[in-house]
From TrEMBL:
Protein name, UniProt field: NADH dehydrogenase
UniProt-listed Pfam families: Pyr_redox_2
Keyword Protein biosynthesis set for record: no
Segments forming a coiled coil: none
Source organism: Planotetraspora kaengkrachanensis
C-alpha cells in the first residue's frame, strides 16, 4: 500500500491505514509543513514545520523520502526521481496543490506561499512597495499578516473581482475595514495578467491554487475541468478504482456539501475517509460514500483579528459572523488542533479511525 504526499490528506490517510496495512509514504520532505501557516512564515514565524520521524515511528508507517516522478498503473508501480520502484495493490494519491504560475518574473521580486521563507528574507530590514495579487482567503490572510508584521512596507491588495467573494457582505465589510486599518490599499476589479506587469518592488502571487495532478494525468487518470482527479463517492478514481484520492488533488463531492473546496478543512476528513475506504475494499467490503458538510470558514487577519464566517452545509455564507480577537483565537485553536489531530492519530490507531478532523 503506498500513500503519495505527506500533507494533511496524505498523513491522515497513512495513519488511518497503518493499523491494518503496511504503508509506504512517499514524499521528499522529512517534515510536515503546515501550509495554512505559510503567510505567517512570510511574516517571520519559524515553527511551521514538524519533523515526521517521531510520527512515523509511532505509527509504523515507512517513509520513502523521494519525489514521485510517475505512476505505472498497468504494472501497479510508483517510480521516484531516484529510480526507486514501489509496487502497490492500492494507492492513495495526495500530492496536494501549489500556487498558480505568476508568469515570467525578474529574480527576487515575485514570491508565492511556497517561497514564504525567501519572501521573509527579502522583506526583512528593507522597505518599499509590495503588492499581493489575489483577493481570496490566502491573499487576504497574506496581506493582513505582512501589513501587521512589516508596517514599513507600503502594501496593496489587487484582485480581479471583489475581496473575499466567498464570505457574507458583513464578513467582507469586516475584512475591508481590518485591511484598511492595517494600511493595506485595496484595488478590486483589477485583472493582473502576470506579476512582472505590476509597478511594485515585491509581488506576492496568491491568485490561484493549481492541483498537483500532472503525474495522475500522465498515468491516464481522468481529471475534471479544474484538473482535479474525478472520484466516486468512496474517493476511488473514476478511471482507476485501485487509486484513491485525498486532499486538493481530488474532485471530491457529497450531495450535501457539493464539490469540496481545496482546504485543509476538507483534506483531513477526506484523507481519513480514503483510509476507511481502502480498508473496507481490501477486506472485500464495498467502501461507503463520503459524508461531509461545512459549518464555518476561518480567515486570519493578522495575529489580533480574524473572521469566523458561519456557512450552510453547502459552504454558502450565512449572515452570522464572529470577528476581532475572539475570531483570531478560534482560528489559532483550529490550526493547532489540526496538528494535534495528526499527532494523535499517528500515536493511536483507534483515534486515527475515529476523529474525523476539524473544519
Ligand atoms: C497561505 C495559505 C493559507 C491557507 N489557509 C488555509 C486555511 O486557513 N484553512 C484551510 O482549510 N486551508 C487553507 N489553505 C489551503 C490548505 O493549505 C491546502 O488546501 C491543504 O494543504 C491541502 O492539503 P493536501 O494534503 O491536499 O496537500 P498539501 O498539504 O499541499 O500536501 C501535499 C504533499 O505532497 C507532497 N508532494 C508534492 N508533489 C510531490 C511529488 N511529486 N512526490 C512526492 N510528494 C510530493 C508535498 O511535499 C506535500 O507534503 C491555505 C493555503 C495557503 C497556501
Amino acid at each position: 500500500m503506498a500513500v503519495l504526499g505527506a500533507g494533511y490528506g496524505g498523513l491522515r490517510a497513512a495513519f488511518g491505514l497503518a493499523r491494518d496495512v503496511r504503508v509506504t509514504l512517499i514524499d521528499p520532505a522529512d517534515s510536515f509543513t503546515e501550509r495554512v501557516r505559510l503567510h505567517e512564515r512570510a511574516a517571520g514565524r519559524q515553527d511551521v514545520r514538524h519533523t515526521l520521524r517521531p510520527l512515523l515511528r509511532a505509527s509504523g508507517v515507512t517513509h520513502l523520502a523521494e519525489r514521485v516522478s510517475r505512476i505505472d498503473t498497468a504494472a501497479s508501480e510508483v517510480h521516484t526521481d531516484d529510480g526507486r520502484v514501489v509496487g502497490y495493490d492500492r494507492l492513495v494519491y495526495a500530492l496536494g496543490s501549489r500556487t498558480g504560475d505568476p508568469g515570467p518574473a525578474r529574480p527576487g521580486r515575485v514570491f508565492t506561499a511556497e517561497t514564504a521563507a525567501e519572501l521573509h528574507r527579502r522583506l526583512h530590514g528593507e522597505f518599499g512597495r509590495l503588492t499581493v495579487v489575489g483577493g481570496g482567503p490566502t491573499g487576504v490572510e497574506t496581506a493582513a499578516e505582512l501589513a501587521e508584521s512589516h508596517p514599513e512596507w507600503d502594501i496593496r491588495l489587487v484582485t480581479a473581482g471583489q475581496v473575499a467573494p466567498g464570505v457574507s457582505r458583513r464578513g467582507r465589510a469586516h475584512i475591508r475595514s481590518v485591511l484598511t486599518g492595517l494600511g493595506v490599499a485595496i484595488e478590486e476589479d483589477h485583472q493582473v495578467p502576470d506579476a512582472d506587469d505590476l509597478d511594485s518592488d515585491v509581488v506576492v502571487w496568491s491568485a490561484s491554487m493549481v492541483p498537483n495532478t500532472e503525474i495522475a494525468k500522465a498515468a491516464g487518470l481522468t481529471l475534471d475541468e479544474h484538473d482535479r482527479i474525478t472520484v466516486d463517492p468512496a474517493l476511488r478514481s473514476t478511471s482507476h478504482p485501485e487509486v484513491y484520492v485525498a486532499g486538493d488533488a481530488a474532485a471530491a463531492y457529497t450531495p450535501v456539501s457539493g464539490p469540496l473546496r481545496m482546504a485543509c478543512a476538507t483534506a483531513l476528513p477526506v484523507g481519513l475517509h480514503a483510509a476507511r475506504s481502502v480498508v473496507r475494499d481490501l477486506g472485500g467490503l464495498e467502501p461507503r460514500p463520503l459524508k461531509f458538510s461545512y459549518y464555518a470558514q476561518c480567515i486570519s487577519l493578522g495575529r489580533h483579528d480574524g473572521l469566523l464566517q458561519f456557512v450552510g452545509r453547502d459552504d454558502s455564507p450565512r449572515d452570522r459572523i464572529l470577528t476581532g480577537r475572539a475570531a483570531a483565537l478560534v482560528k489559532e485553536q483550529i490550526v493547532r488542533t489540526t496538528v494535534r489531530t495528526i499527532v494523535m492519530t499517528a500515536r493511536s490507531p483507534r483515534a486515527a479511525r475515529l476523529i474525523p478532523g476539524v473544519n
